[in-house]
Every structure is written in C-alpha cells, then in structure tokens.
User: Which sequence fits this backbone?
C-alpha cells in the first residue's frame, strides 16, 4: 500500500503567510480512521533551522508510521513563511495558528506535540496553552495526548514559568549534546517533574542515532 504524500500550503498568519507541510493519512484530512494530529516544531530560525531538519523529519515519519496526521511548518521568516524572527514570542502564535488552521480541515481531535531545540521550547509553550487556555484559540475540543521535547532550548529561553502536563511529557536528549548542556536539561526535567530519556553518546543533532530516537518515540506513543 503506497504511503500518503505530504501536501504543501501557504496559510494566513499574524505575520502574513506560513508555509505548512501536512501529511494526511490516506491523503485525506477527513480520514475517519485517524483521530490524532501531530504538530511538530523546528529548531532556531537564525541558526538555519527549518521544518526539513532531520530530527523534525524523524518525528514527521514517526507520526506518519503511527497513523497520525502529521504537520510541520516553517516559522515566520523561514522558507516561504513571511515576516521576521520574533525571539520566541511570535513563533508561539505561529504554532497556534497552524493548529487552528488544521482544526478546520480534519476532525482528528487528539493532539501529539513534538519539537526540537528551539522548537522544543515553543512546543512546551503550545502544550501550556492547550492545557490552560485552549478556548482562546477555539481549540477546547482537543485532547492533548503526548508532548515530546527533543533537546529543548532551556538555556537561551526563559523556562522559569513554563508549566507542562507532567504525566504526558517526555524529554529526550543526548549525554554528548554540544549545544545545550546535558546538566541544564537534567535540571529542567527535575524542576518540571517530567520524565526524561538520555541517549548515550548522542550529540545535539543525534548524528547516527536517529533510528534510536524514533524507537524511543514509538515506545512513548504507546497507550
């Protein structure tokens, strides 16, 4: 059976347009056999982060292979997305805008969130909004299922007031991360009371260990 193919969109957004790539199961956003939507966020725009980053691509394929509708997008100022980098403020709005847009296309109402590095921080903020104020975006009918934070940016971004759904959140990082100190991520996990999985010898970009990363995500996705 052929795999579904991603479809690309340019959607209306606060900073103009956002470039979105959606992989609908069976190429159909209305597919009644799929009740879960995965929203994935990419690493830092000012450090060449895009939605085609290999860690994000690994999450995209994971979501596809687990029967989810998978959506990734370029933050403002990246690729065909208009606007300028807004230092994590407008990027949260970008992610919520994409989710709001997707809600109008598919009846899937279970939500799986994933983000890498800077995108991990944004994903945490999206999870916070979906837990506390989903009505602001007209998304109260969504059920947040899981949140995967992949080597999240916990040093350059202010995470002091970040509130996560602890029982639904997993952080994954490598003990050889050269961008974000493993000790900082360990402290973040302890402070927030979330589960963590440490991949031995893995760098920030999980060179040569993306298969292991996907295996961990597969295990995390189980009920």
Assistant:
């Amino acid at each position: 059976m052929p795999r579904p193919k991603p479809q690309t969109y340019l959607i209306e957004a606060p900073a103009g347009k956002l470039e979105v790539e959606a992989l609908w199961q069976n190429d159909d956003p209305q597919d009644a056999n799929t009740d879960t939507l995965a929203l994935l966020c990419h690493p830092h725009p000012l450090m060449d982060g895009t939605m085609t980053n290999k860690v994000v691509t690994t999450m995209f394929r994971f979501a596809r292979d687990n029967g989810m509708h998978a959506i990734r997008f370029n933050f403002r100022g990246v690729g065909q997305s208009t606007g300028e980098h807004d230092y994590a403020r407008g990027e949260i709005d970008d992610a919520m805008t994409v989710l709001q847009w997707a809600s109008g296309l598919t009846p899937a109402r279970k939500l799986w969130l994933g983000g890498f590095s800077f995108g991990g921080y944004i994903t945490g903020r999206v999870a916070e909004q979906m837990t506390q104020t989903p009505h602001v975006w007209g998304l109260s009918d969504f059920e947040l299922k899981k949140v995967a934070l992949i080597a999240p940016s916990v040093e350059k971004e202010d995470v002091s007031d970040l509130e996560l759904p602890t029982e639904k959140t997993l952080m994954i990082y490598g003990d050889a991360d050269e961008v974000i100190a493993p000790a900082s991520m360990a402290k973040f996990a302890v402070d927030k009371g979330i589960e963590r999985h440490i991949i031995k010898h893995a760098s920030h970009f999980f060179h040569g260990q993306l298969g292991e990363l996907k295996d961990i995500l597969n295990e995390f996705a189980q009920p």
